[in-house]
Every structure is written in C-alpha cells, then in structure tokens.
What does this fold into?
Amino acid sequence: MSVTLDIRLKRANKVYHEGEAVSGVIVLVCKEALQHHGITLNMEGVVNLQLSSKSVGVFEAFYNSVKPIQLISSNIEVAKAGKIPGGKTEIPFEFPLITKGNKVLYETYHGVFVNIQYTLRCDMKRSLLAKDLSRNCEFIVHCQPQKAKVVPTPVNFTITPDTLQNTRERSSLPKFLVRGHLDATNCVISQPLTGEVVVENSDVPIKSIELQLVRVETCGCAEGYARDATEIQNIQIAEGDVCHSLSIPIYMVFPRLFTCPTLETTNFKVEFEVNVVIMLHDDHLITENFPLKLCRV
It folds into this structure.
C-alpha cells in the first residue's frame, strides 16, 4: 500500500530568526486507512566540521575538536499510535526556535570544511512487515540583524609590477597600470559588492578580468588550526583587451547559503575575501586580494 509523507513549512522562503516559531503541517496521503505506531518530529541544528586532507595527521588533537557541535535539538510526538484514514491528512506542528543554555544559533551556511545546517525530520513508526517512513526538510536560520549602521569604507587600489608580492622575476614582467576601487569591504550580505576597475595601460594585451569570491574556513583548537581557502564563485567582468582608461563596473551578489555573516568562534571561523584577477595574453596572472567583512543589517 503506497503512502507518502511530507513536511510543509508555512513560510515559502523557509527563513526563520531565533525566538520565532517554526510552523507548518505534516502531510500524509494514503489510499486506504493506515495503522501506525506513532509519528514524531525532531528539530536539529548542527555545525559539522571537517578537516582537509592536508591537515589530517598533522594534529592528533584535531580529532576531538572536529566533533559535530549541536546547537539545537528538540523532539515532539505529533500523533500517538493509531489509525490514519484514507485520503489526505494534515497534522499541524509548531516548534519554538530557542537554544538550550548559552548556545548561539549561527546562520545557515554550506561550506567545504564548515557546515551549519538546521533540519526537521519526521518519523512514522509502522508494524514489522511495513517499512518505517521518514522525511527530512531543511529550513534556514538568519542571525538577528545588527542595529548599528554599517559605514562603508571604500578601498582604492593601484596594481603595477612594483606593487605585486610573491613574484620571483619582477624584471621579466610586462609593464602595466591598473587602478580601481571597491565601494566597501565591510559589506551588507543582502547587498551587492560594487566598485570599478580601470586599465590605464598595459604592454601586453589583456585576456580577461575576473572577480573571485573566496571563503576562508578555519577549524581547530588550542593545539593548532587548519585554515583553508576555497572558491565560492568566479565572475568575468571583462573579456579581451579592454579599452584603456575606461571604467569597468564591479558588481557581485553574495550567493545565499554559501555565504554568511563573518563568523568567529572558539572552534571555527568563516571569513571571506575577494580577488581581482587580471589574465594577460602571455599567461601572466595578476591577483589583488581584499579581505571582506560580511554582516546582516
């Protein structure tokens, strides 16, 4: 006998803040009456930390510090053992989004080495012959917005062969001059990163100019930290040998779930950076890096 189990939240965007109630309905659809041994609903918020392959084995103490951190866990019985009539049945539920003790609800974030996730799980117990039913549903937690206003701090930059670091043979570099600015490096996560780039001159034709958003995730403990930078997204803002002295706009939207307000705790950190990458036709790669501080207002 076919039976389907689903969790539907009242909010279409599935976004909740601490202190609010996560509410919705459990939907059961079956052709005929169905016997069950109880339906339960569990809400869980967990931070999963993972070590990169280069860090494993370096610090033995890490293995204890990378255990999942539980932020929230609560369980309710939705229905006692009994019978569900044929057709469609909706059972309403409501969970207060409150942590136990002094724990903090961090914002939902899907990273490579740090993952912060909030889920609802519905379990329906059935007799031995019938298979138990289970359904998961992720919801998104946003941290409470800051009351203070974010004052944008514009950053001007000039890139020439002399300003570059990590270059071995500076003399072999072609001559170029690139100017520009970012409108702010302390950014509001719901607003785009903006600015402009101007190529004043370049001896070698330019192949491409790109914006690269990078997450820097740190996991660890007092014995040591593993810090890993990975790319989130790459946007090409210019292709080919652009006109000199022409301003090229910088515009980057912060992707949902893959970014969160800059976070620093005892066991892990999530930080963000943006790289302005200029590729020349002779395959020289010029990169200028800017640390970003993201917040929600």
